[in-house]
Structure formats: C-alpha cells, structure tokens
Amino acid sequence: MGRIACANVLSDLYAMGITECDNMLMLLSVSQKMNEKDRERVMPLMIRGFRDAAEEGGTSVTGGQTVVNPWIIVGGVASVVCQPGEFIMPDGAVPGDVLVLTKPLGTQVAVNAHQWLDQLDRWNRIKLVVTKEEVKEAYQEAMFSMATLNRTAAGLMHKFQAHAATDVTGFGLLGHANNLAAQQRNEVAFVIHNLPIIAKMTAISKACGNLFNLVQGTSAETSGGLLVCLPREQAAKFCSEMKNQSSGAGGQGAVGGAWIIGIVEKGERGARIIDKPRIIEVPPRGSQAANDNSSNPDPNANLS
C-alpha cells in the first residue's frame, strides 16, 4: 500500500513529462480500530514502502503528517521546481495523434476478485470463468502494476514528442480521457478502440453482471498507467522503447511496455470507446502466456 500510494502521487508529475521530484511528504492516518500490535506491525511497513518507492523515483520523503482516523489512509505530496522546457503541458493534442496506455486496466476487478476467494456467494458467481490460481496471479499482477512508477514513460514523452498526457486512476480510463480531451487547445476528440486488460478480468466483470463497467471504461483504477497523445509516426517507437526499458530494468517484465489504444480526431473535446473494442488480454508476469505477449507495435492496427 505504501509503494502504491507513492507511485500514485508521483504520477501527477510524470503525466507532465517530469522525471525528477525535489521533495515528497507522506500523509498517513492510523486506524483507531487497530490494536497496538497490528498498528506497530503494519504502519512501519507502509511507511517503508512509501519511502522505498520515493527512493526508486530519485527523491526522498522529508516530512508529512500522521493522524488517527476510523480508516487507514495513505497519500502524499510531490513537488518540484523546474524550467519550462522540462515539462509538457497536457493540452497539445492534434487530429491524427495516437493514444497510448502504459499499464493494463482491471486493477479494481483483480483486487475484488481476490477478496471474493473467501466469500462463497461471490466466488460462486465467477468460478465458472476463472480459477483460484488465475485470480491469485491477476491480483499479484495488479499489485506489481500499481506499485510500478510511471517514470520511464515520463522520460520517453520528451524523446517521442508527446502532445499531452494524464495518469489513469479513480475515474477510470474513459473518465480521465474525457478530462484530458476537455483541456485541449484544439477541437479534438479521443476515440478508443483497444482495451489492454489484465487476463480474465473482462470475463469476471461480465460474470458479475458488468458490476465494474470495465469494458465501458469507468472501472476505477489505482496508480494506473499514463494515457499519452503521441504523433502517429512516434507511437510504435514509444511502445517498443517502453517494452525494452521495462524488461531491461526488471520492472514491468515480459508484460511491460505500452499499448496503442486509439486515435485523436477532430471533435468537441470529449472521449468515447467504440461499441465493440478489441480486448487485449494481458497475461500476468511469470505466467507462461506472458512470454508471448506483444505491445501491439503497429500504430495502424485495429484503429479503423
């Protein structure tokens, strides 16, 4: 939880192409419902995870605030002072751009499905479409994905002349795509054709009566990837570089990289997902299928 919270906070900088952070503060609420033994075990672990992720991002935690609360809450603040050329304003998308997403969707479904392993009535709703082992693998994938920094993508935004970006979190892919489209200087619309989703999460969502609205793009994500608008001629290169750097750094591994998910066209500053989007099943790292996974390098693929 500590690592995920830190990665989520840093993504606000990474979404503007900023790779360096000067300072971080950690905000933590300790649950009053926890006994002293649990509190002394859990809280230091959360603090350590937050600090570890900050260190991975090349920064440090210099302070913050801790309060007592009915629930555990963890968050923070990331700040940096930089020159105008060091960040990319999220308002420069133009018709013809390609939309790229740097982490798979489905974290909310994966976490819920893992909780349902111990809830017989819930498990009975999904056991025909997924095995317990597949749920555990998806949960591990979601956890690793959420804890992965978007720093690599932030650096590559400059190299490949990104025009705009946002991080995908609580409003889901479509919610954040709409927010980004609304901020554009040009009259453009985002059209999403492909949805990279952690394997089996689409089937679970359907088995639950579309409880999460995963394919509709409004399923909440936590510490998701960056949604980046790139020139068409740069999108495939960005994806390839993301995959190479993620694998080389031991980060996102075989399933790492990025996926081309849509296009930017003339429109009224909104976003939509086509009626029958292509679902890209992203296998959890470590699984046999992960070795065969592709980042969809062709910018023209499935975008008609």
From TrEMBL:
This is selenide, water dikinase. The gene is sephs3. Keywords: ATP-binding, Kinase, Nucleotide-binding, Selenium, Transferase. The keyword Kinase applies. Residues 1-75 form the PurM-like N-terminal domain. Pfam families: AIRS, AIRS_C. PANTHER family: SELENIDE, WATER DIKINASE, SELENIDE, WATER DIKINASE 2. InterPro entries: PurM-like_C_dom, PurM-like_C_sf, PurM-like_N, PurM-like_N_sf, SPS/SelD. Residues 289-304 have a biased composition (Low complexity). The keyword Transmembrane does not apply. Residues 277-304 are annotated as: Disordered. GO terms for biological process: selenocysteine biosynthetic process. GO terms for molecular function: ATP binding; selenide, water dikinase activity. Transmembrane segments: none annotated. Residues 95-272 form the PurM-like C-terminal domain. SUPFAM superfamilies: PurM C-terminal domain-like, PurM N-terminal domain-like. Synthesizes selenophosphate from selenide and ATP. One of its GO terms (cellular component) is cytoplasm. It is an enzyme of class 2 (transferase). Its EC number is 2.7.9.3.
